[in-house]
Specification:
The chain is an all-alpha fold and 188 residues long. 81% of the residues lie in helices and 0% in strands. Helix 1 packs across helix 2, helix 1 packs parallel to helix 5 and helix 5 runs antiparallel to helix 6. The longest helix is centred in the first third of the chain and has 52 residues.
């Protein structure tokens, strides 16, 4: 949630600063983001997790998110944004796959604790992220910025997502026995 909040926190400002977008372009691009997310959630999520399993899907989703966020950071032409949006949408498979993994590893009597902890961490991230992302955007796009780089918030989000893969991969390795799919993937 910390990295993903770059979208609602900065998308409109980033579009205006970098591409000179007005409300029409911002609204259109956000509509495409929403359509992409809906297609992934409603149509592709189940088949992707069924085909690749939750472990591979989580790793794939986080990897796609890193690539898409970095691509948004460096997309200097507005048409590139429209090419990146569908790729970014595919990254939406990550969190449901991670939820599947953590739920499968958590005993039934601790499910409430797990989901309460996740909800609390998400709430905290939703409080912190807009401040972090908008200030990063401002620092690198304001007049007199030491380096003019309006994509800095997206690059920060890509970096945070890459950091999030560290505990994910450690958790997968530590629980290989409970995640047969992880043991199989490691053997390949």
């Amino acid at each position: 949630a910390l990295a993903h909040s770059v979208y609602p926190a900065t998308w409109n400002f980033h579009g205006e600063i970098r591409y000179g977008w007005g409300s029409g372009e911002i609204g259109f691009s956000l509509a495409l983001v929403g359509i992409g997310a809906a297609v992934v959630q409603a149509v592709l999520m189940g088949p992707i997790i069924k085909r690749f399993g939750p472990v591979r899907t989580a790793v794939l989703g986080y990897s796609v998110n890193i690539i898409a966020l970095a691509a948004f950071a460096f997309a200097v032409q507005p048409w590139l944004v429209y090419l990146i949006i569908p790729i970014s949408a595919l990254g939406g498979v990550a969190n449901p796959a991670v939820s599947t993994i953590t739920s499968n590893l958590t005993p039934p009597d601790a499910q409430g604790e797990l989901h309460g902890t996740v909800a609390s961490l998400n709430a905290l991230a939703i409080i912190i992220s807009p401040l972090l992302m908008t200030q990063t955007l401002h620092l690198f796009s304001a007049p007199g910025a030491p380096v003019h780089f309006p994509g800095a918030a997206f690059l920060l989000a890509a970096s945070l997502t890459a950091l999030a893969m560290v505990p994910l991969m450690r958790g997968i390795r530590a629980n290989r026995q409970e995640l047969p799919e992880a043991a199989k993937a490691a053997a390949e």
